[in-house]
Amino acid sequence: MSQFWSQKIHNLTPYVPGEQPQDQQYIKLNTNESPYGPSPQAIAAMKTACDDALRLYPDPQCLSLKQSIARYYDLSVDNVFVGNGSDEVLAFSFQGFFKQGKPLLYPDISYSFYPVYCQLYDIDTRTVPLDNSFGIRLEDYPTDNGGIIFPNPNAPTGRCLPLSDIEALLQRNPESVVVIDEAYIDFGGESAAALVPRYNNLLVIQTFSKSRAMAGIRVGFALGNKELVEGLERLKNSFNSYPLDRPALAGAQASLEDHRYFEQRRDQLISVREWTTNELTSLGFEVIPSKANFLFASHPQHAAKGIYDALKQRGILVRYFNKARIDNHLRISIGTEQEMQRFIEVIRSLM
Ligand SMILES: *Cc1c(COP(=O)(O)O)cnc(C)c1O
Q: Whole-prediction pTM value?
């Protein structure tokens, strides 16, 4: 606390990310990072970008990366916005589209950064409860709103809505911006990117942090109607002309162009996820069917907090949320096959 702080700073409750312990080597199943490295082509491109050209500012338009993203999703370059991680793209979207006369709607259980942005930008909100099996019920979202946002697949549940449900929501809700946060879409869901040409109020946000194993370089992007993208550009150009550095731009583009590596790692992760789901189920866990790179599980006889502590003692980190409705659940990121075998072995010894 300081006399120099504004009232604004005093009132903030910042987001708390999952632990990134620096002391000992854990099996890290707590922050949904990829257990595999980025595409070797992406690593090579980033190394190549680390040369004398670093004395020059990067391209403020990020045009080459935007063109690759546009090609990948069969959209135009005017439909693409890029930022320093999808968290930055989300922050711009909250600031740019959600401060309306009516409340923003999002699920009571979802990405815990949303309420932080709302507080930062003074956005009026209303949370909409998930149903008893932690599903999003779109009928529960009144059309009288200042915007709608949710992750699809949802975090931390892993449940995914089909594209037809997203489209039905867009048809019913043409008067405000609908943001679909697709941080985990590559692990088995169907992207709403295909709907961008038909709905001028849709913004799809994705990241290179999860399925492309590049959380360390901070690249995220949004796909939307060109007026929405222009709005985001206006904010970005009023804040930081160069949020993406040269190595990040080169690495992200190379990753996007290496289809084979991407598909192979994605399929591998999905198969380890399904194996882990079966093992946990056979140990009596209730596991929500996941389309993400994590599982959300609880055990009817063993308290989640106790399992979390015991795992940590044995060198395995998972995520525990001390929050109403989900305080008996664990979120378990999918690691390598060996890591998950070890995880199951330890869990079995605890039961
Ligand atoms: C991980 C995550 C993000 C943030 O990703 P970055 O691109 O690393 O900032 C955004 N939304 C959800 C739901 C996430 O889980």
A: 0.97
